[in-house]
Amino acid sequence: MTELTSETERLMKVRARQKRKKPEFNRCDSHKKKKLSPGWRRPRGLHNKLRRQIAAKGKVVKAGYGSPKEVRGYHPCGMKEVLVSNTGDLSRAEGCAVRIAGTVGMKKRDEIEAMAREMNLKVLNPTSGGD
Q1: 15-35 pLDDT, tens per residue?
Q2: Confidence (pLDDT) at 20
C-alpha cells in the first residue's frame, strides 16, 4: 500500500473537518413528494425559496463547500479510488483502492478480486464470502 505524505495527511484531515460542517444538500420539496428523489437538483423557479437562499429552506451548493483539490476523489483510507469493471482495468489501479462496479456479475467479480489480491490492491466492496 502507498504511504501518505505529511501534506496529504494534513489535507485529508482538513477535508474530514470540512465534510463534518457541510450541510445535507437535498432537492427542494423532496420531503413532500414521494416521486422526488433527495438527490440535488438546482432550484430554478422564479418564486423558489431555496433559489432565493431563504435561510430556513436549506443550503445551496456552492464552490466553498468543496474539499482540497489534491485529495479530491480519495477514499477516507487515504488512497485514490478507482472504479473497475473488468480485469484489464486493474492495470490502471496500481497503488489505488479498487471499487468493483455494481453491474459486474459474480463470475467476473471473483476473477477481479483474485487478481486484486495478487496485486496487493484493497477492494472496497468485496463479496461477503471473500476476505
Answers
A1: 999 999 999 999 999 999 999
A2: 94
Evaluated on CA atoms 129, 113, 69, 62, the torsion sign reads negative
Per-residue cell: 54: 431563504
Q: Which helix (H) or strand (E) holds 82?
A: strand 81-84
Q: Which pTM does this prediction carry? A: 0.71
Q: What residues contact 38, with CB distance under 8 A and at least 6 apart?
A: 26, 27, 30, 31
What cell does 32 get?
Answer: 413532500
Helix-, strand-, coil-residue percentages of the chain, each rounded to 5: 35, 10, 55
Closest CA to 112 of 89, 94, 96: 89
